[in-house]
Structure formats: C-alpha cells, structure tokens
Amino acid sequence: MAIMMNTPLILIVEDEPKLAGVLQEYLAQSGFRTLHLQRGDEVIPEVRRQPPDLILLDLMLPGRDGMAVCRELRQFSNIPVIMTTARVEEIDRLLGLELGADDYVCKPYSPKEVVARVRAVLRRLDSRLNDQSQKPDLQVDITSYQASLDGQPLDLTPVELRLLHTLLKQPGRVFSRDQLMDRLYTDNRLVTDRTVDAHVKNLRRKLDACMPNRELIHSVYGVGYRLDL
C-alpha cells in the first residue's frame, strides 16, 4: 500500500516492541504512517522535531512516564493524545484526561479498537477545525448582565458573566486562577481554586450547548484559563 506524505502520522510510544509492531501493522493497513519510540524521554524532542498528527502514549515508560510527558506536551502543543495503560484504576483514567489526553485505552486491548479510537479522535479534530473556520459572535454586556453566542442568549449567573467578560476582554491571554478570583469577587470573600474551576466548568457547559463542537475556553496546565475565538 502506497503511503502519501500527507497521510496522518501516528507516533506510538510503547516499550513493548512486539505490541508496538502489531499496532504499526494495523495502522499501516488502515492507511496511516507510524513512528515508534520506546522511551518517554524521547517524546518531546521528537515532537518538536517532527510533530505527528496523533500520539499513542503508554502510561508506564522507561526514562519518563506518560503522564509527565503529556503534562509537558500540553504546555506547547494540542496534538491529540490517546493514553494506553494497564492501570485501570478510575483515578488514573481521570487524571490522564485531566492532563490533556483526548482518550484512553486499557490493556489488554484489540488493535482494531485502537485504530477505531485513532480515527474517532482525528474525526473530532477535523470537525473542530472546520467549525473554527468561522469566528463565533460572542457578545457580553456587563451593564445589563446579558450575553449571547451567535445570537443565542446565554443564561449565565452574575459570576459566570463576569468570568466570561474578563476572558473576552483579552482573548488568547492566560489568566491565572488568582487573577480570575480577584476579578470575580470584589468583596474579599474567601474562595478556593476549585471554586473558579467550578464556575469555568459551568460556563463551558453553557457555551457548549450553543456551540457543541467548539471549545472556547481552554485550560493551560499549571497556569489557568484562556478564551480563544
């Protein structure tokens, strides 16, 4: 099968050569190019040298574990990541996704399932990119406490509206949680980082109801949040 250079490149980070070989074979049969690394500390330099279209990232790796790799990767790249792991505890699954992974697959898995997951994640990415070709019309009137997205009214609480107004004034700027707390609460009440996270979560849900396939508010790991239009 001929592989064109515009065919998606899948980076497989797996320290079991036989398993990696099987994945490469199945992905190649499905029309993907592949590259295999066995060590976690090789991933970031390789991604900076040749960014893949998607990374299959094992959790337990020599050199550096998959979560540390994913954490650093998300500081400079939104390349889709599917984590593969034999550790099936729920906390590990959730932590992997909180670090910015797009999906996870538990070992032992079917290579066909992995290929299906790869296709699904890339389809979602294509859908988001197509949606982003049109800039959303996001309006916030802080005086009347009204907001709308593409003409659809947003039913926001006063705190959610101030949060959206703050992010919208400087699109692309990353606001720390402390900076957001200072703007959301002017009465010096005691609130925690989790309070800000809860407001962001609720705001995201309401924005998503109007624009399901477009993520406007992005998390920046270890820093805070930004709004992208």
Description:
The chain is of the alpha/beta class and about 230 residues long. The protein has helices at about 15-30, 45-50, 65-75, 90-100, 110-130, 160-170, 175-185, 195-210, and strands spanning about 10-15, 35, 55-60, 80-85, 105, 140, 145-150, 150-155, 175, 215-220, 225. The protein has two domains: about 10-130, Response regulator (Rossmann fold), CATH 3.40.50; about 140-225, Orthogonal Bundle (Arc Repressor Mutant, subunit A). A five-stranded parallel beta sheet has the order 2-1-3-4-5, sandwiched between helices. It has a three-stranded antiparallel beta sheet with strand order 6-7-8, with helices on one face. Strands 9-11-10 form a three-stranded antiparallel beta sheet.
Q: Would you report the number of β strands?
A: 11
Order of strands, main sheet, comes to 2-1-3-4-5
Radius of gyration: 20 Å
CATH superfamily of the largest domain: Response regulator
**Number of spatially distinct domains:** 2
CATH architecture of the largest domain: 3-Layer(aba) Sandwich
Rounded to the nearest angstrom, the distance between the terminal CA atoms is: 40 Å
**Which class do the helix and strand fractions yield?**
alpha/beta
Kindly estimate the percentage of residues that lie in beta strands according to DSSP: 15-25%
**Helix proportion of residues, in percent?**
40-55%
What ranges have pLDDT less than 50 throughout 5 or more consecutive residues? 1-5
What's the pLDDT, averaged over the residues? 85
Q: What is the fold-level CATH name, i.e. the topology of the largest domain?
A: Rossmann fold
What does the overall shape look like? elongated
